[in-house]
C-alpha cells in the first residue's frame, strides 16, 4: 500500500482490524462484482495481537501519519483486554472498536446491533485507555441513531459510519451465493 500512496500525506492510517489470535479469514473468493458495485466477505484475516505489536506497529513508526489501531474481538472482555494492551503503545494514537463483528460469547449478533451492548462495551473500554476511541458502527440495524447515542454516552470520541451493509449475490446457474460464509444460518457478505 505504501508503494501506491505516501502515508505521510494522510491524516491518519487505520490498518486492517486485529484479532487477539491469528485467524485465516474466509476462503476465496472474498469479493465479487455486482451490477451495483462490489460485495465482500473477508472474515478478518489477522496475524493476531502479538504479531501486530511486534511487526505492524514498528513498521508504522517510519511514518508521521498517526496510527489508529482497529480492534475486532469475540467478546466484551476481549475488547477490553486488547484495548488496554494496544492503548498503552506510544505509537498508537487512537483505537477503533470494530463493533460490527459478531459477539461469539453471547448470541452471535454483532455488538453494534444493540444499544445496551454498545454502551456496556464502550464504557468498559473507556475505563482502560485515555486514547481517543472511535466506534465503527454497523449499518445492519433498524435505527442506527440509538446505537450512535449509546456509544457517545459511553465515552466514544468519534463514530465511524459505517461498516459493510449485508448483501448477497446469487449465482443463477448453481443457485448458490457467489461468496460468503454461513454463520448461524445467515450468509455474511457485505456491499
Ligand atoms: C477488502 C475489504 C476489507 C475490509 N476490512 C475491514 C476490516 O478489517 N475492519 C473493518 O472494520 N472494516 C473492514 N472493511 C469494511 C470497510 O472498512 C468499510 O467500512 C466498508 O467497505 C463500507 O465502506 P465503503 O462503502 O466506503 O466501502 C473491509 C472492506 C473491504 C472491501
UniProtKB/TrEMBL annotation:
Domain Dihydroorotate dehydrogenase catalytic: 2-186
Enzyme Commission numbers on file: 1.3.1.14
Reaction(s) this enzyme catalyzes, per UniProt: (S)-dihydroorotate + NAD(+) = orotate + NADH + H(+)
Organism: Tigheibacillus halophilus
Pathway: Pyrimidine metabolism; UMP biosynthesis via de novo pathway; orotate from (S)-dihydroorotate (NAD(+) route): step 1/1
Function: Catalyzes the conversion of dihydroorotate to orotate with NAD(+) as electron acceptor.
Pfam families assigned: DHO_dh
Subunit note: Heterotetramer of 2 PyrK and 2 PyrD type B subunits.
Keyword rRNA-binding belongs to the record: no
Cofactors (names): FMN
Protein name: Dihydroorotate dehydrogenase B (NAD(+)), catalytic subunit
SUPFAM superfamilies according to UniProt: FMN-linked oxidoreductases
Keywords for the protein's UniProt record, in alphabetical order: Flavoprotein, FMN, NAD, Oxidoreductase, Pyrimidine biosynthesis
Domain of life: Bacteria
Amino acid at each position: 500500500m505504501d508503494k501506491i500512496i505516501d502515508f505521510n500525506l494522510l491524516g491518519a492510517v487505520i490498518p486492517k482490524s486485529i484479532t487477539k489470535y491469528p485467524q485465516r479469514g474466509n476462503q476465496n473468493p472474498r469479493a465479487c462484482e455486482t451490477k451495483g458495485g462490489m460485495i465482500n466477505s473477508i472474515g478478518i484475516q489477522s496475524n493476531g495481537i502479538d504479531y501486530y505489536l511486534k511487526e505492524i506497529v514498528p513498521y508504522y513508526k517510519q511514518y508521521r501519519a498517526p496510527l489508529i489501531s482497529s480492534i475486532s474481538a469475540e467478546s466484551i472482555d476481549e475488547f477490553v483486554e486488547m484495548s488496554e494492551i494496544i492503548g498503552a503503545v506510544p505509537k498508537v494514537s487512537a483505537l477503533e472498536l470494530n463493533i460490527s463483528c459478531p459477539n461469539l460469547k453471547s448470541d452471535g449478533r454483532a455488538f453494534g446491533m444493540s444499544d445496551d451492548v454498545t454502551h456496556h462495551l464502550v464504557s468498559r473500554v473507556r475505563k482502560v485507555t485515555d486514547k481517543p476511541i472511535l466506534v465503527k458502527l454497523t449499518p445492519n440495524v433498524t435505527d442506527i441513531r440509538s446505537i450512535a447515542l449509546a456509544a457517545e454516552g459511553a465515552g466514544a470520541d468519534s463514530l465511524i459510519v459505517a461498516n459493510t451493509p449485508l448483501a448477497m449475490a446469487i449465482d443463477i446457474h448453481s443457485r448458490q451465493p457467489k461468496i460468503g460464509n454461513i454463520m448461524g444460518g445467515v450468509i455474511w457478505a457485505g456491499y
